[in-house]
Write a structure and sequence with these properties.
- Chain B: Keywords: Endoplasmic reticulum, Glycoprotein, GPI-anchor biosynthesis, Membrane, Transferase, Transmembrane, Transmembrane helix.
- The complex is a heterodimer of chains A (about 220) and B (about 1050).
- Chain A has about 220 residues and is an all-alpha fold.
- Chain A contains seven helices and no strands.
- In chain A, helix 4 packs antiparallel against helix 6 and helix 6 runs antiparallel to helix 7.
- The two termini of chain A are about 15 Å apart.
- Chain B is mostly helical.
- Chain B contains 36 helices and ten strands.
- In chain B, the strands form two sheets. Chain B has an eight-stranded mixed sheet with strand order 4-3-5-1-6-7-2-8, sandwiched between helices.
- The chains are: A mainly alpha (about 220), B mainly alpha (about 1050).
- The interface between A and B is medium-sized, with 20 and 30 residues.
- The structure holds zinc ion (ZN) (2 copies).
Amino acid sequence: MWDHEIRAMASTHAIIAASVFMATVVPAVLVPGFSVYGSHLLWLYSVSGAVTAVSVAVFWLLGITAPAKKHTLGYKLSRLFRSCVYFFLSCLFFHTVVVLYGAPLIESALETFSLAVLLTSLTTLRCLCVLGPSVQAWIRVFSRHGAMSVWDTCLQITVACTAFGAWLGAFPIPLDWDRPWQVWPVSCSLGAMIGFLTGLVGAPAWIHYHRKQLTYKCK
Amino acid sequence: MKGLPVLSLLLWVCALYFVGIYLFVGGFLLVRLEVNRTSTCGDVLQPAGEEPADFCRAQPRFRRAVLLIIDALKIDFARFDPNNTAPRPFENKLPVLEESVSVRPSHSRLYPFRADPPTTTMQRIKGFTTGSLPTFVDVGNNFASSAILEDNLIHQFGQVGKRVVFMGDDTWESLFPKRFHRSLPFPSFNVKDLHTVDDGILQHLYATMVGDDWDVLVAHFLGVDHCGHRFGPDHPAMADKLTQMDGVIRSVMARLQNDTLLVVMGDHGMTDSGDHGGESQKETDAAIFLYSPSPLFPAPPSQSEPDVVPQTDLVPTLALLLGVPIPYSSVGQVLLPLFPSHRQTEGAAGGLSQLEALWINAKQVNRFLETYSGMAKDIPADSLTRLKSEFSRLSSEYLAAVRGGGPASPQLAARLQAYLTSVRDTCRATWARFSPGKMAAGLAVLALACLLCLTLSELSLVLIRGDGPGLRGPAAAALSAGGCGLGLLVPPLLVLLLRCASLLSDSYVIAEGRAVTFLLLSLALYVPVHLNWDGLLMPPGHDPLKAAGLLPSAALSPSAVRRESGTLLACLGLLVGSLYLSLAFHGCREEQGSCQPSHFLSPLSRLQDNQLKNLHYVLSVCSLGSWTYLLRRCLRHYGNLNSSGGAVFAARWLLPLLCVCLVLHWAVSATPEDSFRNLSELISLAQRALPRAAYCLLGLGLLLVWVDPLTVFVKTRTAATVRGPSLPPPRYRASTGISPQAELHHLIPQIYQRMRLSLDDSELRGGGEAGSRPAVEAYGLGTVYSAPLLLLCGLLGVGLLLLHPEGMALSFLLLLLETGALLHIHASSTALSGLHGTPAGGFNVPWTPVVLWSLAASQFFHATGHLPTFTSIQWTAAFVGFPDGHTGTALPATLVALNTFASHILFAVGCPLLLFWPLVREVGGSRGGGRACGEEGEDAVMEMRLRENPQQFASALLQLSARYLFVEGTQVFASACAAALLRRHLMVWKVFAPKLMFEASGFLASSVSLLLGVTLVLRVDVAVSRWFKMLVPDASR
Ligand SMILES: [Zn+2]
Ligand SMILES: [Zn+2]
């Protein structure tokens, strides 16, 4: 059972990582003058879109998403609607947090919001996929004993890695090296992306090596 | 409580830090060696072969010179642009210079005049009279300038019998005591005074010039500089001042005689805010204007004109033009356009040709270099030998040319010039010398002190208990050393590590305000995340699936958890909000290109828009009012405003009175000078009296808090004895909403019950009778330790605000809010993690709040408009209450230091609050909620818990202080490391050395204030003991 779940997770992550790769390579071929630094926002949205689409598809196909309590169409629609609202609210939340961390308030607001969208698609979207639109469950997952399945643990690891990567990405900004990746928000989004990819690779590996210690009592 | 060991241990640690800082700074900031030799007329002999004519006897080119020094005459002020139709206040106000240059090009010239940093007036006077490069360490002497001992122009003038008459800035008088033929010094220190010095000079200048009892006339005007400091360059007052200077230069030029040279110069420039001291081009580039009624320049302006004249070049030029030897330590080179390319009149020393002047100059510089390298070994040997061989080659070539009688090659002059330039550059590069041994020793002592603090914080309990010193000590030390390695990995120390690492990069030091805020925010956000990770943020059991056994302990009821979490998150929001708002009060470093300094930093009197001025004033007054209201509200809430003691008197009357003084003072100082002419005397009286009254009130308040720190109100209830012990103990009734009275004055009778119980026990043992004492209600006993400390912080805060610009009141309000938020976050997280639930837990304050506290201190250093640069020091603080300046130097220095380190002082004094706040909040929050009306009375003990466990109290206090000192000390250590490692870095004098000085001084201020805070706590403890004895006299038995 363990091996099965870990294998499923690893392949899911491979698909998501491949989608990130494709979202970088395909526009580079199709769009003239595309580059990660130069047309950063384009790359950002392409990656966000790809990760969003692939994650939703994969998690829906695998059926990991928390089961709905009712099976009526109306309930499902309202769930979808709530998910969308949560997605948007999460963008606003990340935007606020990033501004509080020192991003410019008015100038380059678009860049800041794009970063917030990326962070949302890397973290909140995964929460939505795994746990459904329930903030209480999200908060519960991020505690030591809160994980109830392998996917919850995986969620913990990827979200923590993404947030840490984005946080770490802010460090080179004040340095006077004048590199293209020091421009706001390139380093932060790159940091978040690298953290996310690390999480994708790290989560199955960590779970594999700690499978003896992991116990999920309530599932 | 064992107060003495705590205090002595802390003192010992602080002393160790001070020794480390002293050693390091002593090794890092060495004074340039001064050569105490003087040049004589015999030194300047012509090359061998000719008859030894006495240089000083020969007829000089000019007999007399007038030196007009206009302080801070920036080159931008001196230039004139006829196409500029809408000049700003400082532009095009000195047309005389440009007129004269264009009309009489052979009589006058205007150059940019580049000063060497530090661009403070005293260093510059030293620089352009000795021709040397005064070093960084001299900056500190600005308060007590001492006489120049090196050879200088004034001394040389005196040697040849020239009469030097001086008038103006009295710094000269202290630099050259009794050197002048006549001297008219005027006080310079009061930067608010635009006219005294200038008017004093103008009263005497023209009369002196017409007379004939002078050879060199030095007049140093200060108006422009003071106008810059007070209003900034972009202000109508600057236009008036520069126009006045234009008139002065015209009048002086009209009175000049043919044998007189006029030099008009600035000693340094000014930044856009009107300050100076650093090394940005705006500060270093002054103007120099040379003029004489007789033709001065042999050739018209040409391509070979220098773009910029270094300030050191004035000394040899003036010396040779006036026929005196070049001062011994000068490293400047003569200004060639002033000398003819070929000797014109035979025999006259004044007619020195360019080559001769360069030769004399090079000989003097070479002699200085030889003497200096004999005394000090700091000039690199290879560049020294290179310079020496170059000079010997030049000298043989020159001598050959002179003996041959033919014209010397034109390259020779260029090579002599190159030689002089390279000597000056070598000197400039090497006159920042270090003593590696002292620096290493200082670093080692600092590291040791940090380690000691860490050990102290881990071993505080063992040390205070004092048992088993033989065996337990080493074992525990080994244990903690093992723990340290692991302990460094916890996030708060990781943040501290990041903070220390950031001090090693100039970019991060420049962006320090932002970086500290970033770290502070990160660590603050870590608190709820960590709590949630431990499952403590949400009440257990809201999820029915959850197994109850998985949680560590269900110490708190779900509603209490929910309330505490709510408080924590709300306070986090408050903290984040005030952090974000406080970014608006930052100043700007010159390195931050596009930065705009905060509008609140300029004093109100600078604002010209009246409506804006009123708005700012009202805002400031409101902030001050809220500061006082919040403080009193807090004290009242915990029942500390009821008694009639000294501290309560201070809180009730002195604090509001202090605020009234402050508000009136702001109003008076913001009124424009010329608006109430008939009231000017009253205004100047008020300007003096109001701040002084505030100082007195502050002193009185501090004294009262010290003498009578207890804020406990005892209400004797005689009825209780009648009714007997069967009466149920009165309840603590907070937040029940039944009685507003009880809610306002946290009634804590349970404490007394408890106290009496314990006393009864001891008394029974002692054999006394019980039950005959009257029952007592004590108001405010639960916050007996924190209330005086809070009051002290409040009083100090208002006092320090007095030294700041008015707009900073808002920032101080944010500081108070942030402090409160931090304390509440700490208290809530302590309550949530149930640290005090277990009796063995002690009162330990974890690392996170301590690091947060220290980061907040650094953050508010920036948010009160300060920066770790010397330019940004708010000198105006020295004149609050002393608008006419000072006689001594100690008082102004203290005032400026208090202003600069206000946030360090406030946070360090308030540091013990971190220990008290979880206990204070305990009543209102955790245990109070669900079971407040239960039968357990002991829940409302608050700070009396500390009295019950004096040993744990002492150890917790020691631990907290040691941790704070560790956090502050490691930052000093890191900036010392940065200064040592990067001592050859391009930015060392601009960024790292000032940062080290500020960090070290900030540490001094912090440690002294911390000791003050701890001492106050100990003082309260003594007072509480006395109070208990007084209340229950039998206990003394
Ligand atoms: Zn000056
Ligand atoms: Zn000045």
